[in-house]
Amino acid sequence: MFKYLKKKFRNIRKLPTFLFILPVSLIKLSKMCMRTEVIDPNSCIDPEKFPFITVTWHNRLLFFPPMFKSHIRRKTVAMISSSRDGQYVSDVCRLFGIKSVRGSSSKKGFVAFTDALKYLNEKCNISITPDGPRGPRYKMSKGPIALASKTGYPILPVAINYSSYWEVRSWDRFQIPKPWAKVTLRLGDPIRIPADISEEDMEKWQKTVEDALNSISEIR
After folding, report:
1. CA separation, residue 197 to residues 146, 150, 192, 205 (Å)
2. 182 and 37 in contact (C-beta within 8 Å)?
3. Which of 3, 5, 59, 117 is 20 to 30 A distant from 152 in Cα terms?
4. Is the pTM value of this prediction over 0.85?
């Protein structure tokens, strides 16, 4: 019976929106009970400086939306997998006021790139989890580098760090902050990628951006 119900659930690609209202409300409420800090040395959280192509590791996403004010979330567009799980993430983002483009480098990639370019030209940030949706963890994919190289817009590393947290037994060891933990939003230095880079240069820039994101994410 359990296997049957599990199979039926996996075939549901779109759940009713009301099912996501409670968890989103709990995240917002939890933030009110936690200490928070924003470290933005270059004052990048300023719509006058948008757009950026932001990169954040997949396991730090839980408190990514509420750490930004609503007017910044409205200028943020998340690039999300076209999978079933991606649909759930997209529904949660919508409740936070964040739009999304669906696709990846392996599936519907061209559509996602076209939509991302449209929003970038409208001065909206494009937010990417470069090790998602299935890893490997903390490894930079080509997607953000290629997008930055083709559009000329800078990559901005963004980290969400918790003073204490639980880890879920998933491929990314998804992090959930413990009650009363300190949540820190930390932004790195913008990184500009040259146009028309070669495959060899692509790998070098992947490592450069990966190291920058790992540094502010306190990954050793």
Report:
1. 8, 9, 12, 9
2. yes
3. 59
4. yes
